[in-house]
Amino acid sequence: MAEKHNTAVTIAGVTFKNPVMTASGTFGSGMEYEEFADLNRLGAVVTKGVASVPWEGNDVPRVAETPSGMLNAIGLQNPGVDVFMERDLPFLAGYDTRVIVNVCGKTTEEYLAVVERLNETAVDMYEINVSCPNVKEGAIAFGQDAKALSDITKAVKRVSKKPVIMKLSPNVTHIAEMAKAAEAEGADAVSLINTITGMKIDVEKRRFVLANKTGGLSGPAIHPVAVRMVYECAQAVQIPVIGMGGIMNAEDALEMILAGATAVAVGMASFHNPYATLQIIEGIEDYMQRHEVTDINALRGCVS
């Protein structure tokens, strides 16, 4: 009889059937992907950013391809929490997967308004987006200043009835210090990295390719940076770390886990391969079988 391999992980008392999540902003709420990926197989669906009111996002063009990655300056376009509760939550309730809502705002009050609206729903956790490099106000300041990060973590924890994940910006000098600031104010977990601020110029037209001038760089190009930052944070805090950044396959995901991540989030890979999340789950299971690892948790942080 084949030995059972445990892929379940627990974050803040919430158990996920496996460590593979979707990265916010790359999967919607799963509606676009349900014909490709069985959402029941995912550890969690992490939704696109949800604000207290509809956001139009940035002007176009707002996406550009780069070597081994892409730049985006979407600006967290979303229809707001009312539409999310009416349309997306009922859809997600039809699946046996954890639901993590990515919360965005331009002021502390806007973040708190979303959290308070969702407190009585079946949402499992909040991921507080204080790190998007494409929003001119709010998020970038919170994500790059330790005091601002501490203040918003404290404020969200005060009103939240769900566990809180703080999503960290890599656009800082010492990301481990940011993780410690979030932990000190009660964050239940941290997720990282969000995109790295980048720029692309059309030399023939002598113009910025993105209307926003700058955008967030994602994809394989940032993966080694992400692994290093996940390792630094996992060494610095006692709370769980969720690793993301250029995860394209099971090997990339396992790197994050070996570096200390409890779970991983798959983002850009889903754009060109809608089966990526399921293939990564299967790849992790295959790795565990080949290496006779009976519990995924035994791999966490075991790099030497």
Architecture overview:
This protein has about 300 residues and is an alpha/beta fold. The chain has one domain (about 10-55, about 75-195, about 220-300): Aldolase class I (TIM Barrel). It has helices spanning about 80-90, 110-120, 140-145, 145-160, 175-185, 225-235, 250-260, 270, 275-290; strands at about 10, 15, 20, 45, 65, 70, 100-105, 125-130, 165, 190, 195-200, 200, 205-210, 215-220, 240-245, 265. Strands 3-16-15-10-9-8-7-4 form an eight-stranded parallel sheet. The radius of gyration is 18 Å and the shape is globular. The model has no long low-confidence stretch (mean pLDDT about 95).
Describe the secondary-structure layout.
Blueprint: E1 9-11, E2 14-16, E3 20-22, E4 44-46, E5 63-66, E6 69-72, H1 81-92, E7 98-103, H2 108-118, E8 125-129, H3 139-144, H4 146-159, E9 164-167, H5 175-184, E10 189-192, E11 196-199, E12 201-202, E13 207-208, E14 214-218, H6 223-236, E15 241-244, H7 250-259, E16 263-266, H8 269-272, H9 276-290
Parallel strand pairs: 3-16, 4-7, 7-8, 8-9, 9-10, 10-15, 15-16
Antiparallel strand pairs: 1-2, 5-6, 6-14, 11-14, 12-13
Helix pairs in contact: 2-4, 4-5, 5-6, 6-7, 7-9
State the helical fraction. Answer: 25-40%
* CATH level-4 homologous superfamily: Aldolase class I
Q: Report the order of strands and helices.
A: EEEEEEHEHEHHEHEEEEEHEHEHH
State mean pLDDT (0 to 100 scale): 94
